[in-house]
Amino acid sequence: MKIIRTPRSMTAWSEGLRREGVTIGFVPTMGALHDGHRSLIRAARLQCDALVVSIFVNPTQFAPTEDLTKYPRPIAKDRALCRAEGVDVCFEPTARAMYPEGFQTTVTVPALARRWEGAARPHHFSGVATVVTKLFGMVQPHLALFGRKDYQQTALVRQLVKDLNLGVAILVRPTVRERDGLAMSSRNVYLSPHERRMAPLLFRSLQTGRQIIEGRKSDVATIERIMQQTIEQEPAIHVEYLAVCDPDSLEPLSAVAARAVLLGAIRIGSIRLIDNLLVNMSGRKVTTQVFRLTAEDCT
Ligand code: AMP
Description:
Layout: E1 2-4, H1 7-19, E2 24-29, H2 35-47, E3 50-55, H3 75-84, E4 89-91, H4 95-98, H5 110-114, H6 117-120, H7 124-139, E5 143-147, H8 151-163, E6 169-173, H9 193-198, H10 201-215, H11 220-232, E7 237-245, E8 259-268, E9 271-280
Parallel strand pairs: 1-4, 2-3, 2-5, 3-4, 5-6
Antiparallel strand pairs: 7-8, 8-9
Bound molecules: adenosine monophosphate.
Adenosine monophosphate (AMP) is lined by residues 29-30, 36-37, 39-40, 146-147, 149-150, 173, 175-176, 183-186.
């Protein structure tokens, strides 16, 4: 496995392969890799000839009060996971290379970034949209994979790829969970044993919401109240939001619909956790199609 640190070398590597008709898959990450990342890497490996994983803790998506300096950076372990999964390139740019002196441009996706995570973390999504756009420019992938765990992020990435004609196919993979339902996250390591035991309540509350919607017996306000009550069993958890939303616009639904996404964020102590669940009663399956990409598909 090759480790590439400069944007220029990254682009040169990709351009060489693209000229030969090789398909390039890309998994952008902030490192501290776990089985959620691994599932994206494996899906990419199946569908592309060459595979790039980026490891970059992007400073512009953290607020000054957030955990940028504390964010886990187990780089040797991350490289070992990538190597074991057959990754061809680990792209590890420095912050200086990503944002050199004089850097000015930011990418924003205002409507999709307005609510939920965007409201709680005001500059987060412009940081995400900008870094994803830059990474796509450097890596030039045919296909990029993202986790449904960060649902709002996936909606935003799809929108920016469409709006800016970036020509990258986007594949979203299901959330990988611990046995008790907690969505895997690099931040779970911050939870104390006591907090870790409470954490699956977020998923349980979303499951309860989904069951009620599927039973078609309640209105949105009641569903949100029941989800809230499920979590309030544990007074140490602070609910930031629990909402029934349109799965495309992420606007709150006023009435239960055949397709919805339940979005949730909680705080346990100083740790924020997010999760979501899709509801689809329209007959259209939510599973991801498995296919193998060829260079012709991507031109
Ligand atoms: P991060 O390193 O947190 O920026 O995440 C990199 C990618 O991994 C993003 O597309 C995330 O949505 C995805 N990801 C993180 N956690 C999970 C999970 N538990 N299941 C599936 N994908 C995940």
